[in-house]
Amino acid sequence: MNKEVEKIYKRKIKEFQKHNKLYYDKSAPAISDREFDELKADIINLEKKYSFLRSTKSPSDSIGFKPSKNFEKFKHKVRMLSLSNAFDREDLINFEKKILNYLNEKISLEYSVEPKIDGISASLTYLNGNLTYGVSRGDGSEGELITNNLKTIKDIPHKILKKNIPKEIEIRGEVFIEKKDFEKLKDNFANPRNAASGSLRQKDPKETSKIPLKFIAYTFGFISENKFKNQSDFLNELKFWGFLTSDYNKVIKSTDELFIFHEQFEKKRFDLNYDIDGLVYKVNSLQLQKRLGFTSNAPRWAIAHKFSADHAYSEILNIDIQVGRTGALTPVAKVKPVNIGGVVVSNATLHNEDEIIRKDIRIGDTVKIERAGDVIPHVLEVDIKKRDGKSKKFNFPKKCPCGFDTIKEFNKITKKYDAVRRCPDKGFECEKIAVEKIKHFISKDAMNIDGLGKKVVEKFWDLKFIKLPQDIYNLDYQKISSLDGWGSQSASNLKFSIENSKKVTLDKFIFSLGIRHIGIENAKIIADFTKNIKSFLNLLKKDKIKELINIDGIGETQVKSLEKFFQNQTNIKVVEKLCEILSVRDREVKNKGKLKNVSFMFTGKLQNISRAEAKSLIEENAGSIVSSVTKKLDYLVTGEKPTNRKVEQAKNLGIKILTQKEWSDLLN
Ligand code: IVH
After folding, report:
1. Are residues 145 and 206 in the same domain?
2. pLDDT given at position 253
3. Inside any domain, residue 165
4. Which atom of ligand 1 is nearest to the CA of 298?
């Protein structure tokens, strides 16, 4: 699964690189801006969903960033390297072992321990105390000269007035964005690091100044005279010179203590104002650092001890109740934002009422949250040691936020009551369900209304523009174009995609109604049975729905659900109204089984259709594909430049040879 995702991701990155170059470098885009934006959004969404996906070529690391040729290049006097990683105690012990072996001495080492801030590094050269060059890391050897962008950051002094400042010194540190500021930008970026990166490398420094970036200093590059003994002394001096340094910097003496400190810190990092993804341990003595030097891409004297990429601790600030499209009440913990494997998590599901009781989860508790793969972040357990007298039990509401009494359904098969509490399915009468139903209506597999995403639906709902699905087709675009963040162009784009959605197939229409237990497959089956909208509406007539029970794939649950749906007067009105507005296409009757026992083989390039699609067309009609010309083959289909050998073989065996046109005629 992960491999498959990675393959898709890499393909998209490659495509992005191609179009990025065409767009910015050659100024000759091959795809529309919209497609380009969609491609970027696809990549960002994949990164959000799968934290293991990362690429230096990702648009999330370069949003708004034009290629570096827009900035002057700058060669670092001292290379800007990265750090090796440690994930467990063993890695840590090995790290120290290697150091002691290298030094060939039995000494006890002291470490400067610093939070590993999740931002992007930058280097500031001060000549006689004046900030002269500000440079991004780039590829480590050469960065981009972004002095003016860096100067917009308030934490960066333009002038250091202290007397002891070396004649030339390069101060390095991390540019980042605080969690509270990221909250406002989180729809555009997967994590704060991407937001910082995007903002810092804007061509126009004015754009950089719009996002509140911070800078924490932690090391030096080139230094004309170095009289510091320890890294910790240097950190203190940085503060004296007017730089912001981390409040959590600390000196620790043994790997055992490093490990304990890491464990404790992992449980409190959610309380920091900024994101960190681990701790950095640096041999404190600068003299030893000098002796140890570097491997090809990282110092021997430092290591980054990473936090887990699939779980983290945070505090429950509140518990919200979310109501789904089918009325299920899901408790969601609102937690202090914490970065888990590159994604900032501020909501974690608590599944249902029983789960809260079983795990004894209370508001104010510190909890362990898991976010693995594409699973929704969820609360694993309470860190009981952290519970204080202030934590509050949560009383699961017996009423839906809409006011209806909730129920727990009885499951006839398990003979148990459901763990899930539900608002009885009163459809559009529950306003929480209603808005979810509309989100479902516009979704990709349903009416597929581009440009009317979930957020827009919520906004239009709040503004009372939409109450029922049919209202989508009666929007006031004049009003919309004057809304914040909208304009006449985006309003007319929306109008275009709404108008476009009016032509719909019967199965999609049935699915879009969001009837409980009627998913895409069931909608197709019902469409196959009813064939057109008229006979679908006939289901409303007495006992007609019952006939569905005879269809393969439809059971009692689905029939009951359909009956319930059509007992509701609002639902009937919605369906009737939509039928007036939409043009619902009759279900196409497929010639299923037409090619039963008939085998095909392709040779040469097909026009307007891929081999995969051609294959699935044949298979849909019960035909088969073979891979060699033998007596068993019925038809050899020839595209452009067929392989002569295959054609000859087929002729010799008396196999029928078809052109692509003849083949598609056969398929009708
Ligand atoms: S020292 C040669 N200290 O982590 C070592 N780096 O993976 C230079 N980082 O590129 C880095 N906090 O962007 C150092 N306290 C800290 C850090 C830190 C974050 C980042 C930095 C670096 C990356 C290495």
Report:
1. yes
2. 95
3. yes
4. 2
